[in-house]
Amino acid sequence: MSVYQNNEINEEETSRTLSLVVDNQPGTLARVIGLFSGRGYNIESLTVTEIDNRRHLSRISLVTRGTSMTIEQIKSQLLRIVPVHLVRDLTLEGPFIKSELALIKLVADGANRVEALRIAETFRARTLDVTLGSFVFELTGRPNKIDAFIGLMKSLGDIEISRTGVSAISRGDKTETKVLEQIKLT
Amino acid sequence: MSKDNKMTGAEAVITALVENGVEVIFGYPGGAVLPLYDALFKNKKIKHVLVRHEQAAVHAAEGYARSTGKVGCVLVTSGPGATNAITGLTDALMDSVPIVCLSGQVPTHLIGTDAFQEADTTGISRPCTKHNYLVKNADLLCATVHEAFEIASSGRPGPVLIDLPKDIQLTNIQYIKKRTKINKILTTVLPQIDVEIISQAADLLINSKKPIIYAGGGVVNAGIEASNLLTELVNLLDAPVTLTLMGLGVVSNKNKNFLGMLGMHGTYEANLAMHNCDVMLNVGARFDDRVTGRLNAFAPKSKKIHIDIDKSSINKVVHVDFGIVGDCKEVLSLLIKEIKKSYNIKSIQSKSSWWNQINNWRAKNSLGFIQGATIIKPQQAIKSLYEKTIDKDTYVTTEVGQHQMWAAQYFGFSAPKHWMTSGGLGTMGYGLPSSVGVQIAHPKSLVIDISGEASFLMNMQELSTIVQYNLPIKIFILNNQWMGMVRQWQELNHGSRYSQSYTSSLPDFIMLAKSFGIKGLRVDDVSNLDATIDEMINTSGPVIADIRVEKEENCFPMIPSGAAHNEMILSSDDKVADTSESGLALV
Ligand SMILES: Cc1ncc(C[n+]2csc(CCOP(=O)(O)OP(=O)(O)O)c2C)c(N)n1
Ligand SMILES: [Mg+2]
Q1: Same-domain status, B117 and B76
Q2: Which domains, ranges and CATH numbers included, belong to chain A?
Q3: Would the CB atoms of A4 and B132 count as touching at under 8 Å?
Q4: In terms of domains, do B146 and B66 share one?
Q5: Distance from Cα A58 to the centre of ligand 2, integer Å
Q6: Cβ distance B479 to B450 under 8 Å?
Q7: Shared domain check, B466 and B515
Q8: What is the CATH number of the domain that holds B208?
Q9: Using CB atoms and an 8 Å cut-off, which of residues 16-35 of chain A contact chain B?
Q10: Are A76 and B314 a contacting pair at CB < 8 A?
Q11: What is the pLDDT along chain B (587 residues), one digit of tens a residue?
Q12: Separation CA B103–CA B160 (nearest Å)
């Protein structure tokens, strides 16, 4: 962008969690991601799956960073994308829940196996697979809880990680049902 | 069409185009669109204009759209046809031009196999379209075409591409008529205009001692009524008004409050009024970097109001005090009503000292130039062209470069939709094909492509189109034998090291014209300029006029890269400060 100089007031960048409802069509996700790469915005985490199989709607949970001017710009730009129906700024709206699922494989032996099971219990991780030399744990929760769990496992042996990224929803009794009902069935 | 009311996908697409009001389509055939061409052959309602390059098809459709307010329609084949169209689509996206582009695609079962003339057209065109589709289910064809027209023309207009695999074009389907609303809840439905903000904005304007109204292409897109409302507001407030390159014509150049174009090559009075204003009202413009200059010195003491249909334009680069999302026609009419409510002569601030100051800036005569005895000044060429055509219904297109800026500065526009130029993308080669679209839409009007010799070479294959359809377009080439704008920047920023900016090996334009069977004219002496222009205008067919102008003339006034509105240079005699290091990096 050939903007002459950054006119932004020196404001700290903060992390924001956005929640989008989009048409589950080929190309929608590419447009959302293309917007971030094309305009130089950050994506810290992104998850997407269909949430309404009659209207073919998907939810995209997205964590990004920026100053408030940048975030406002990101939200307006997202809304310009035709198959994007709803853009909610959960961070701005109020209390919300952020959760993630992680699968962690640990290869360890001896005392480290005992320690791993003890830590897994403390974190309420489920053990999905066991061999004589390895475990696969499943853990859900806030990203920093998962980070902490991974940190501990790392010190016990060789690990492999698969994480889903953040899924988010607001607290309280408000839902989007009314708004989404305006979307015609296709 | 068979008995059970079914037709091929291709026939359905063409029927849908007709239903959406398409009268003209600009295109170029190829293997993947043969069924569509077959359907066009049988259809008598749509005129197909055969261009000579797919980029030109899009530019022609842009010229058609911008001079009529309708959606421009394009048809290209798969692979190279589609990739050739990309520059045009990007141009239309940047300048908010409503376009529907149909592209052929290899049959669905071959997609992904690197088949002959396969390209990932939706992938390539995604960032340069407002929306695009790959239709893999023939039953969705009709709805897709209808929706495409709705999307292209609603809100902030833009190009939409529909990729049509060949097997889909050949599948028999039932035609489905257009329903009205498209399946989109929040973005096409604009938010309610906030009356509180309107009233605060009205207050601000009423109490302003030094207001400026700065308007752009959004007003053109909002239609003639928006132009009239804007003029009404200008007159009501007795406020000065300046227009962007894209907005020229939305307030008449003859309006006494019009200060000319603003920005990098804008007038002294427009830029200084922007710099010194206390209240700025931006109507349908987007604080483009050509307009603002250095952002941290942009209209530093002003409160800013911004009306735009695209929310993302508000607070994108310039922070404003009041952002109003809406169609500028509606917002302007509310604003005028509100001002009139509290309006009496006393309540509106006197602007006499503001106008005194502006008139002092005007007295600088920043567009002044000295025409010598023989060599034609490019400014004089445009001025004479304007004076000779002032009483005609004239449409002007341009290429990109110095000639474009001179056209913007010296040609006057008294109405919107008469000026077609590539603003956002700055596409050399835009003007000639664009003029094709304009002339097709306005067969009786005078259409002039103000061109540079280098830009002309970029799409000159369209001469063939012009001849085929007998379009009486006047190609007015300001021939300085340089890529003048590049040469100017090299002179000012790169120590006059003229790297690759000389246009050598030019054709003889008269012979070139002759080879196409059209008239060619040449003039190199100012005493023959008027006669040449007369002859051009009075020729009934197309003309190439080779206007040999001063070769090393620079385009002024100019705000150098990275400078502010009040740091403009007015002529080569001004001490030109070295462009700052950060300025050198800018385009
Ligand atoms: C497709 C494209 N390539 C390159 C440029 C960069 N560029 C801007 S102006 C210009 C020179 C134009 O020369 P000419 O058409 O002769 O116009 P003049 O400036 O001499 O009036 C160039 C190369 C551009 N704008 N578009
Ligand atoms: Mg030139």
Answers
A1: yes
A2: 14-93 (3.30.70.260), 97-167 (3.30.70.1150)
A3: no
A4: yes
A5: 52
A6: no
A7: yes
A8: 3.40.50.1220
A9: 23, 26-27, 30-31, 34
A10: yes
A11: 445 679 999 999 999 999 999 999 999 999 999 999 999 999 999 999 999 999 999 999 999 999 999 999 999 999 999 999 999 999 999 999 999 999 999 999 999 999 999 999 999 999 999 999 999 999 999 999 999 999 999 999 999 999 999 999 999 999 999 986 655 544 456 778 889 999 999 999 999 999 999 999 999 999 999 999 999 999 999 999 999 999 999 999 999 999 999 999 999 999 999 999 999 999 999 999 999 999 999 999 999 999 999 999 999 999 999 999 999 999 999 999 999 988 776 677 789 999 999 999 999 999 999 999 999 999 999 999 999 999 999 999 999 999 999 999 999 999 999 999 999 999 999 999 999 999 999 999 999 999 999 999 999 999 999 999 999 999 999 999 999 999 999 999 999 999 999 999 999 999 999 999 999 999 999 999 999 999 999 999 999 999 999 999 999 999 988 899 999 999 877 765 667 777 778 77
A12: 11
Same-domain status, B161 and B225? no
B358 lies in some domain:
yes
CB contact under 8 A, B317 and A84: no
Q: How far apart are CA B567 and CA A153, in angstroms?
A: 62
Question: Do residues B156 and B124 share a domain?
Answer: yes
Residues B204, B160 share a domain: no
d(Cα B509, Cα B453) in Å, to the nearest integer? 10
Range list of β-strands (E), B302-413:
303-308, 322-325, 394-398
Closest CB to B122 among A27, A72, A186: A27
Assigned domain for B343 exists: yes
Structure tokens at B21: 């009001």
Strands A96-107 and A158-163, how do they pair? Answer: antiparallel
Q: Say how many Å lie between the CA of residue B375 and the centre of ligand 1.
A: 22
Q: Name chain B contacts of A186, Cβ cutoff 8 Å.
A: 183
B403 ligand 1 Cβ < 6 A: yes
Count Cβ–Cβ pairs < 8 Å, chain A vs chain B. 82
Cβ pair B238, B256 in contact under 8 A: no
Q: Which atom of ligand 1 is nearest to the CA of B403?
A: 21
A133 in contact with B, Cβ within 8 Å: no
Per CB-CB distance under 8 Å, the chain B contacts of A179 are: 185-186
Identify whether B567 is part of a domain.
no
Measure in Å the smallest separation between the Cα of B411 and chain A Cα atoms. 28
Could B183 and A2 be called an inter-chain contact, meaning their C-beta atoms sit closer than 8 Å? Answer: no
Count of domains observed in chain B: 3
DSSP string, B131-179: EEEE---GGGHHHHHHHHHHHHHSSS--EEEEEEEHHHHHSEEE--PPP
> Where residue B147 sits, what CATH number does that domain have?
3.40.50.970
- Tokens representing residue A22 in the block: 């989009």
3-state secondary structure of A52: strand
Using DSSP, state whether B575 is helix, strand or coil. Answer: coil
Q: Are residues B303 and B384 in the same domain?
A: no
Please list, residue by residue across B164-196, b when 16 or more beta carbons sit within 10 angstroms of its beta carbon and e when fewer do: bbbbbbebebeebeeeeebbbbbbeebeebeee
Smallest CA-to-CA distance from B465 within B181, B63, B97, B188 is with B63
Cα gap A170→A176, rounded to integer Å: 10
Identify whether the C-beta of residue B490 lies closer than 8 Å to the C-beta of residue B335: no
Q: Which atom in ligand 1 lies closest to the alpha carbon of residue B401?
A: 19
> What residues of B are annotated to the active site?
54, 116-117, 166, 485
Give me ligand 2 centre to Cα B413, in Å. Answer: 23
B352 and B205, same structural domain?
yes
In a domain, B501, yes or no: yes
Domain coverage including residue B279: 195-363
Which residues of chain A have a CB within 8 Å of the CB of B312? Answer: 73, 76-77, 79-80
Q: Which of B465, B426, B425, B429 is nearest to B449 (CA)?
A: B429
